Amino acid sequence: MIKLESIKNMRIDLRSDTVTLPTPEMRRYMASAPVGDDVFGEDPTINELQQRICQLTGKEAALFVPSGTMSNQIAIKAHTQPGDEVICEYGCHIFNFEGGAPAMLSGVQLHPLKGERGVITADQVKPVIRSSDHHNPRTALIEIENTHNRAGGAIFPFEHIMNLRRLADEYSLRMHLDGARLWNAHIATGIAIVDWCRPIDSISLCFSKGLGAPVGSILCGGAEFIERAHRYRKMVGGGMRQAGVLAAAALYAVEHHVQRLEEDHRRARELAEFLVNLGVSVDLTATQTNIVIADLPLNAAKFCRQLADAGILALPISTTRVRFVTHLNVGDEELESAKLVIKKVIFGK
Ligand SMILES: Cc1ncc(COP(=O)(O)O)c(C=O)c1O
Description:
Elements: H1 4-7, E1 12-13, H2 24-31, H3 44-57, E2 61-65, H4 68-79, E3 84-89, H5 93-96, H6 101-106, E4 109-113, H7 122-125, E5 138-145, H8 158-170, E6 174-179, H9 182-189, H10 193-197, E7 202-206, E8 217-221, H11 223-235, H12 244-256, H13 261-277, E9 281-282, E10 291-295, H14 300-309, E11 312-313, E12 315-316, E13 321-325, H15 332-347
Parallel strand pairs: 1-11, 3-4, 3-5, 5-6, 6-7
Antiparallel strand pairs: 2-8, 7-8, 9-10, 10-13, 12-13
The chain binds pyridoxal-5'-phosphate.
């Protein structure tokens, strides 16, 4: 039986799956990794990771990069010319959380569309594709996010991706997927990573979210595209030397931490249902993976401060909304503790 007093001395961090810590086994694997100078293409562990991801995604080439942001941004750069337009969803990461980088690094403008649970459909996209009239920017790229962070980890349904692909082909557009959490979509749907990736030109995958690696993302796509992206990685200072120790963490995570995401999904579901039973508003239909977004009848920042005082960290994402994310370092016991504290903060007992 968990007691409230004992939780106070704990720190259960539900703000994000980016807070995960490398496990002792992962650290051992990192320590034993052979390394070399990757700027010369000579780091055997990075080369192994890139090959492994090509196998997993069915793409010709892959490039290890320090972060999901860099991966998305060099993808945008490699797909576009300055003055182009990129169609994306209003709540997506590249539009909201990458510091305005598409404008600065690629000189492109984003054309965000309001999607439902992060999903934009071909019917929405078709009318905003620009004609070749010289007044218009040139539509170059469709960007989607799967799973969608802001939409509470919702999955982009596969048939909608196929519809977008057909549209993209009709208008000679490219498609980029921010698949920071594509692993979660794979586990939740049973659709293989290779199948998710097939209709898409370039995909960014992260190792440092639910997979629990300390650092690293990978961009994959066609060989020529990755060749261009490689040049842009250089320009933004993303060439890393003996980074095989980091690639080893990613390799370890891909082998050992993908299937276990189903536990995170189960716990997120449990938390979402618990909140609903307390009378808190949660879109259970959107709670498909490891993220729970609660809409509170209280000030979210204040609520999170009260939770933090009792040892539980959650993220206020608007004045009334709070995000909870389950991950590698949140087991059943941590979840029970979090539930106790949440109930106490809401009801004062
Ligand atoms: C959907 C999505 N894309 C990209 C990123 C960026 O990843 P990074 O923090 O490694 O730059 C994040 C980070 O949380 C994310 O949630």
